[in-house]
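Minutes, project huddle
Topic: does the predicted pose make sense with NAP bound?
PN asked that the exact inputs be recorded in the minutes so nobody has to dig through chat later. Recorded below.
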Amino acid sequence: MKKTVQQSEKEAAKVVKNTRRDFISKSALLGAGMAATPMAFAQGTTSGKTKSVDATAAPKKRMLGTLEVSPIGLGCMSMKSGSYNPPRDQKDMIPVIRGAVDMGVTFFDTAEVYGPFTDEELVGEALAPVRDQVVIASKFGFDFSNGNRAGRNSRPEHIRTAVEGMLKRLRTDRIDLLYLHRLDPEVPIEDVAGTVKELIQEGKALHFGLSEVSPKTIRKAHAEQKVAALQSEYSLIQRALENEVIDTCGELGIGFVPWGPVCRGFLGDKFNEYSRFSDDSRFAAVPYFTPEAIKAHMEVLVLVREWARKKNATPAQISLAWLLAQKPYIVPIPGTTKLHHVEENMGAMDISFTNGELKEFRASLEKISLVGVRQPESALIDQ
Ligand SMILES: NC(=O)c1ccc[n+]([C@@H]2O[C@H](COP(=O)([O-])OP(=O)(O)OC[C@H]3O[C@@H](n4cnc5c(N)ncnc54)[C@H](OP(=O)(O)O)[C@@H]3O)[C@@H](O)[C@H]2O)c1
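Predicted holo structure (tokens), as shared on screen:
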């Protein structure tokens, strides 16, 4: 039998409380100074020890164009669609999303294609009780056939149909940040931007985003409808978008949202040089997860671990803090299925680097040869 929102809220509060207690007993490192939220789901429980749930702390915010978000968001892709893990049950993922709200996350990332559709349903149910306190981002750009992705499609009429479906699944009357997921080579970007502009005028979307497009396409789209955010892959290992794409965003006042900010778990110390993936794993097709690449990138992880020791932090926190330190308009969206990883990732907001430290970090990084990563030229081409 389906649970009511109230039942789910109670359940979420119980899990949040237990997870938090467990976390506090295990770690004194994390979570200091996180943004405050109205404690929507935790029913007033406070840890007393960590600042992660301190409702009196000043909220930390970043801007994506004119859209205000928490400096670190939550990527929800792998929750129900199970991209990097077996698909998780909605009832188990709702407490993760709601727990993130209580920890100060206000920025949630999903897409029509995750599942497809199921991930948006999860996000919609989880955030319905706090809809007005959070920013929901979703993406269109694909056709679907028999429940599977079937090529790109950004024809104006298709975008409109997609958005109607998104609104239903997300249980909302507007999508705060509506992204084009991948450019459709058959549809001029001006037509896509023009359609989103109409949707914004109708109040069905509030801000426009792009994903994995070139600086040329960003400029063309921005001329038609102001772009709030570009979402593309960026991490200590995947740095192809430095500097042209990221600088274009800065010049135009567009926020940059790195996906894959902990390199799909690698920078969270999830793998080692002996990790191997079966053919049906999503990692098997990723060129920077071949045995040779993993071995080479262990050097990056060793460097990140060194900085983690110096800063009394974890490798994931260092990887996210490094991204935050690159530009004030960068807002990473680490994906996770675990509430304790949300809390750990939010702890990155309290780690800072001096200019000297950033130079030293980069000098070490540039000495490491990367394998299977995107080349800088690829940043100039729509993906
Ligand atoms: N625009 C696009 O084309 C595009 C493409 C891909 C993804 N995205 C979006 O970007 C989000 C993030 O990207 P991503 O999920 O591909 O990569 P990611 O955030 O770099 O990595 C996610 C993986 O890292 C692990 N992880 C997260 N925090 C961790 C921590 N503190 N310690 C150890 N492991 C940790 C997660 O495992 P656990 O579940 O075990 O924590 C998960 O398997 C996605 O959720 C999605 O919303 C967008």
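Observations noted during the meeting:
- The longest helix spans residues 5-26.
- Confidence is low (pLDDT under 50) at residues 1-38, 43-55.
No decisions taken; revisit at the next huddle.
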